Amino acid sequence: MIRVLLWFLSLFGFIFTPDNHVTPVMRWGQYKRTIAPGLRWTIPLVERTLDPVKTSIYVGNIYLEEVLSRDNIPFTLKMTVLFTFIPDKAVKPAAAQLVKAGEPVLQTIVRDYTNQGLRRLAAKYGAECLSDNVTMTIMEKDLSAYLTSTMRPLGLAPLKRDGILIKELIAPPEFKHTIFDVKHDESILEVLRSYPVPELVRLLNEVIVANGLKQGANQMAFMVGGNDAIHALPWMANHPSQPDNHRNGQHGYNDYNGKG
After folding, report:
1. What is the DSSP code string of the chain?
2. Which of 67, 95, 195, 252 could lock onto 90 through a cystine, CB 3.0 to 4.6 A?
């Protein structure tokens, strides 16, 4: 019954627009204006309406690869952009095209602008800083401001509050291992700083000796330490030992002299 009534009213130029939508109006084939929600009147035969355009929230799920940090470490990002499209806020040539384009085109535009803006922001931070939660929060705010300013002529904009959500930032496995090793080494150095110098030299010598003995018995040794704490350490580069026939020759010479 309602559909029949709306069809009958449309014969006299009345158009119904649902809530959270606007209806684009074409006059003599050119984009003219939009109609707000509710029952509105248009000029019969002169004006023609298009399908209603949603003005509520659009959800764009974006996946970006090879986002480089300032030190050229590639990251992968998973994020969500919540945005709106208001044709009346766009410049008229852009609005005339976008009201006909549909949601897939709007999603593509937002994804391209987000890709460009996020890569520029990521290039300002080092890899270790980029992985920090505080930095991600700052990037969300900066990216929101960037999208608001650059997409304003198109009538597109992220939500003013929590419109950008960086859900996951994935570092390459090699970078994770490097950070782990660096933190491990820093913790060792912190412990070593608590030792007095002679005691530290003794501990280092013991570690080097233990590692050197595992390499083999045919290692030279050198001296490390102060006058009051001198230790013999293995030289980590192996040196070839004297051949056995040379030692045998020395024994033979002694035996020959003994016989004489």
Report:
1. -HHHHHHHHHTTTEEEE-TTEEEEEEETTEEEEEE-SEEEE--TTTEEE---EE-S-EEEEEEEEEEE-TT--EEEEEEEEEEEE-GGGS-HHHHHHHHHH-HHHHHHHHHHHHHHHHHHHHTTS-HHHHTSHHHHHHHHHHHHHHHHHHSGGGTEEE-TTT-EEEEEEE--HHHHHHHHHHHHHHHHHHHHHTS-HHHHHHHHHHHHHHHHHHH-S---EEEEE-SSSEEEEE-SS--PPPPHHHHHHHHHHHHHHHH-
2. 95
Torsion-angle region of residue 130: left (phi > 0), alpha (psi -120 to 50) or beta? alpha
In the chain, what are the domains? 2-50 (no CATH), 58-172 (3.30.479.30), 195-260 (no CATH)
Task: Give 24-48 pLDDT, tens digit per residue.
Answer: 998 888 888 898 898 887 888 888 8
Which pairs with CB-CB distance under 8 Å and at least 24 residues apart come from 214-221?
none
Give me the mean pLDDT over the 18-22 stretch.
91
- CB 38 within 8 Å of CB 61: no
Q: Which residue has the higher pLDDT, 94 or 178?
A: 94
To the question of pTM greater than 0.85 for the whole model, the response is no
Helical packing angle, 92-101 and 103-122, nearest 10°: 120
Does residue 164 have a pLDDT over 60?
yes
What does the pLDDT look like over 45-87, one tens digit per residue?
A: 888 888 999 999 999 999 999 999 888 888 999 999 999 999 9
End-to-end CA distance of the chain: 136
